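User: I've been going back and forth on whether these two constructs are worth ordering. Before I decide, could you fold them both?

Assistant: Sure. I'll take them in the order you sent them. The first construct and its structure tokens:
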Amino acid sequence: MIIEPKIRGFVCITAHPEGCAKKVADEIAIAKASSIESGPKKVLVIGASTGYGLSSRITAAFSCEASTLGVFFERPSSNGKPASAGWYNTVAFENEATAAGLYAKSINGDAFSNEIKEEVIQTIKEDWGTVDCVIYSLASPRRTDPTTGNTYKSCLKPIGSSFSNTSLDTNKGLVESVSIEPANEEDIENTVKVMGGEDWELWMEALSNAGVLNEDTKTVAYSYIGPEVTWPVYKNGTIGTAKLDVERASRAIHEKYGIEAYVSVNKAVVTQASSAIPVVPLYISILFKIMKAKGTHEGCIEQIVRLFKDRLYEGELNLDSEGRIRVDDWEMDPDIQAEVASIWPSVTTDNLREVSDFDAYQKEFLELFGFGLEGIDYSQDVEVDRPIQSLIS
């Protein structure tokens, strides 16, 4: 069938398998260019099919020559409809890894559940014995507690007072004002349950109890802080509260299991998750223009290669005062942020493309779903039914 992008809200509901394969191949080429000889060799990536999680799996495999086990929750094709982008990304990754002689297996299911944890542990025991790196990169709007069976939904809200600022309607290219009412206590608690550190702790507890961690195992969860303009709805809002709980979890994991456990604060990039956060798409559009002009712009793969090579395995961690790894350092450079702050008040719908790189934002958003990639003929029929080679479940 011929597949075209169909956007609803902040998500594209279609994905192009050949475009996804091209995007994965492009990331692999970047990872191959940076060999990390002292990197990990047996890597579990929880949330491995898109964004920073996918880039982590690619970096582990093609920079470190590691065996990888990926966990995700993606939709296969059915009734002639395309699969999700994450499914096609994994198809492409496994095909490339197999061709390179690398171990790659995948598990598709609810990573919050005990059943998926047990399946992962059994696979590690049978195939590896132990794992030396665990990347936690889940981004989900809801979570079912595996003990109580209660389902929680996260939300994007400020805390204490309402929030109003300039935002961007990415579908229409309109700069407009946005107002968000403050969260109540239930909103905060639910967001922490979904996006906080509890599930990361449960994963590490399960892996430790099963004896599949060793003294050299490292685990990393991803976070974001961003500039002050986003703080009311992010750092100081419900998500920020959840991210503080992830930092708490990193300390608890280190104390309980004696392994290195870090929170990596990464740069703002175009992802499905970031597209849904008010103010952030406008900030990213301005940021991209400035960082590209200075030659410091990075996407997911460049960030994760730098994290693995320069911080985790071959360089200095350079932890901040809160014990976090900061690979958002180029983004948060004072000169960069000063330029963002000077442009922000003057942005209008009319000058949006002049003062920001909104075109690049839109392009990268479509590329997440396999559209707009060079060398792909989107007028051609494609087969949508693509199996993941080593899918365990």
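The second construct, handled the same way:
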Amino acid sequence: MSLDVIPRSAYTEDHEAFRQTVRQFLLKEVAPNADKWADDGIVPRDIWPKAGELGMLCPTVPEEYGGLGLDFGYNAIVDEESSYYGNVATGFSLQSDIVVNYLVSYGSEEQKKHWLPKLVSGETITAIAMTEPGTGSDLQSMRTTAKKDGNHYVINGSKTYITNGQTADLILVCVKTDTEIQPAYKGISIVLVEADREGFKRGRNLDKIGMDEADTSELFFEDVRVPMTNCLGQEGMGFIYLMSELPQERLSIAISSQASAQKAFDETVEFCRDRKAFGTTVLDFQNTRFVLADLKTKLQVGWAHLDWALSRHLKKELTAEEGAAAKLWHTELQWEVVDKCLQLHGGAGYMNEYAIAKAWRAARVTRIFGGTSEIMKELIGRKL
């Protein structure tokens, strides 16, 4: 079982050499700790600098800000390998594939020089706080405000379902800097909030049905004062910034989902080859072979599509609807694969001691975060 046997057109020899470095790190430092971290409900901070030393964090950051100045293909390698070999949702992809792009694209020179080297090294862990209780995907209805007071913003409100919420040192908080302007999206801004600011509090580490090791939190802001220089880019442009970065975020989710589906399939083939029933192996039953043959075919198509989407993105040609389609298709495929693979495990599949049970639970959220499948269909449909 290995991702090496899958032909890939989007990657160079340098990408594949990097893959081996990432894999060895995951097998040595991450996978053996998966159960403990799941029990703890959090990935420890000390793993981040170790990943940073190997160039696994934010590889696209320009060299002048402490990064390697590489292309997104290196991010994709980390995403694939983490999903296949790491068996843990580390939070790395949030920092590398999502948060850092906002700072690189819209941050001031001062913000970039101060924060980017720390993100690359793993010294600083980040989060982005969009979702609020009761709003879900409807970002324009957010209620968290940042009101001006002299040369400061005063932030009040709450956020929920925030990945890296318990560990983040820096949070990119989506706020309303203008509550009166219409349309409402023109009043949204993104403000950098350091976790040591007075009035900032972390809520519960939320109890989820999957990805137990990934800290996912409530965040509260009560008269949190930050200088107006902490505004990311232009005031009132936050919604536009969010929309412009979504294709990469959704491609990242698609990549992880495809690799997770492949892992579940590969382990299920081995299980069915070893498991005996009625005097033969489970793999010898025609139904088993037909189910697996169907899944193998869809995975093959999935990898080809992913290469196409990744190649498009590397040329900066991936559109918003193409990114949405990638997330929709690959997350739905992931769910089909893990659900059918769990069924082939029989009663064992329902036991948490088997990897397929954890994979099944973890897969349920991918059709929700980053925009639900229903929202993806709506975005694609608008371009018909």
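Notes on the second construct follow. Residues 200 and 347 are 46 Å apart (CA to CA). The chain has a mean pLDDT of 95.
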